[in-house]
Each structure stands twice: as C-alpha cells, then as structure tokens.
Amino acid sequence: MEDQEERLHDEEEWHVEAAAVIQDVKDCVSQIQVSSLPSSNTTIFFNLTTKEENTYCIELTASGFRIVGAKYDDNSQSSEKHFETPYALLDSISPLYRVSFSSALAAKLMALAGELDQ
C-alpha cells in the first residue's frame, strides 16, 4: 500500500482539491479561501474564519487537514493533530459549524421529502 505522505499532486490538482473543499464548507463558515502561502506538490493552505469569527490557517496534505496558525497566512503554530476531512476539523473547532451543517442537512432532507411527495 502506498504511503500517504508520498502521494504528490501538481499545483493545479491541489487548487482543484481546494476549490472542492471550499465549495463543500463555504455555507457553514464565515469565510474560507486559499491562503497566499505558497503551495507545493504536497501541500496547500487555507485561510478560514469560523461562524464564531475565529481565524485559522489550515494545511491540507495527503495526511489530511491540520491547523497551522491562528491567523491568516500564518503556518508558525503547526498542530500534530490531523483531521481526515474538513468536516471533522470544523466539527472540532466550531460549535456553530455543527448547527449550520445540521440546519443545511435538514433543509436538504425536507426538500427531498417534498420532491418524493409530488
């Protein structure tokens, strides 16, 4: 089995991955964008503001997501804790993410139930 740390993406693939992450979570956070920190073939960074207005710099590698700074474009405070998904990371740092995600999920389920009733 291939070691996760050895998986490489070119810079364009990281930006495609980043765009997908941003699209998935943008409605459940105040702001998320690709950081101005340089990406590489193993890493890309995000600037994130939670619904609580806490700011973070997040690193994404083959190992997952981890907090690396408490302000935008700052990777000076690397955490050893990796999260497999952006949802797991957000769930651990933002109670309002949970509320927002749950509300969005409930709305989607209600819409689906309405479509099934027709």
Summed over residues and divided by their number, the pLDDT gives a mean of 88
Question: How many beta-strand segments?
Answer: 4
Tell me the structural class: alpha+beta
Instruction: State the major sheet.
Output: 4 strands, antiparallel
Describe this structure in words.
The protein is an alpha+beta fold. It has three helices and four strands; from the N terminus they run αββββαα. Helices cover 39% and strands 19% of the residues. The chain has a four-stranded antiparallel beta sheet, with helices on one face. β2 and β3 (55-61) form a beta hairpin.
Layout of SSEs?
Blueprint: H1 11-25, E1 31-34, E2 44-49, E3 55-61, E4 64-69, H2 86-93, H3 95-117
Antiparallel strand pairs: 1-2, 2-3, 3-4
Task: Name its key features.
118 residues, alpha+beta, four-stranded antiparallel β-sheet, 39% helix, 19% strand, globular, disordered N terminus
Can you summarize this structure?
This protein is an alpha+beta fold and 118 residues long.
